[in-house]
Design the sequence.
């Protein structure tokens, strides 16, 4: 899943990016409100983390929150503020924020808030997807094949989720990169092939066909008839 972080403090921005990436999220970064809006208009973000006090736009993070909410009524928005006041929180919530976190905060709390917001998002509440012997359940982020629950990392899950939601179609490497990796990804590396190999290994069941088919030079597909 992709998370947009808009924070003007370079140290906090780097820390948030590192924390979220280590947790398996693709992270897009912006240093001011105008840049944040521009990134949001380009990238299919699953969640936005916005500082309240942002340069680049009258009204700062509050106005950015309002503009994002106009563009996407459903995307979860978490506001960060150094001001623990009811008035600041009310303005943010009125602008469309879903939750608030006051600085300084513990990284564990940030990640818990992010997980909670993503669980409540419409995409997270989507119905289970079944393709052949594979079943993906978004509510619990679990994958089952022939009754066997398969443990996947967050990145492995993101890749499989995209393949299964596009079952029967050839999904290109660039499509997977755009879905599961952030803008800092080095497109010349073989990270996609590596994660496909990880998935094949974890999904393998003796006597059963490989559910993932590679089309050399084109991409990958999952087919119910595999």
Sequence:
């Amino acid at each position: 899943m992709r998370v947009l972080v808009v924070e003007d403090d370079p140290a906090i921005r780097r820390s948030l990016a590192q924390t979220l990436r280590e947790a398996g999220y693709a992270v897009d970064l912006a240093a001011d409100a105008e840049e944040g809006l521009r990134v949001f208009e380009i990238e299919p973000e699953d969640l936005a983390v916005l500082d309240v006090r942002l340069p680049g736009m009258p009204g700062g993070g509050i106005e950015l929150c309002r503009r994002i909410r106009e563009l996407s009524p459903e995307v979860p928005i978490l506001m960060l503020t150094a001001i623990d006041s009811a008035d600041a929180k009310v303005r943010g919530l009125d602008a469309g924020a879903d939750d608030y976190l006051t600085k300084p905060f513990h990284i564990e709390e940030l990640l818990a808030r992010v997980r909670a917001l993503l669980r409540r998002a419409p995409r997270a509440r989507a119905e289970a997807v079944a393709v052949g012997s594979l079943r993906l359940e978004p509510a619990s982020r679990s994958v089952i094949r022939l009754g066997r629950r398969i443990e996947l990392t967050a990145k492995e899950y993101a890749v499989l989720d995209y393949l299964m939601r596009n079952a029967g179609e050839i999904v290109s490497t660039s499509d997977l990169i755009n879905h599961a990796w952030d803008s800092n990804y080095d497109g010349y590396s073989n990270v996609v092939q590596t994660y496909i190999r990880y998935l094949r290994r974890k999904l393998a069941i003796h006597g059963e066909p490989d559910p993932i088919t590679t089309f050399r030079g084109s991409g990958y597909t999952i087919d119910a008839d595999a």
User: Anything to note?
Assistant: The chain is about 40% helix and 20% strand. The mean pLDDT is 87.
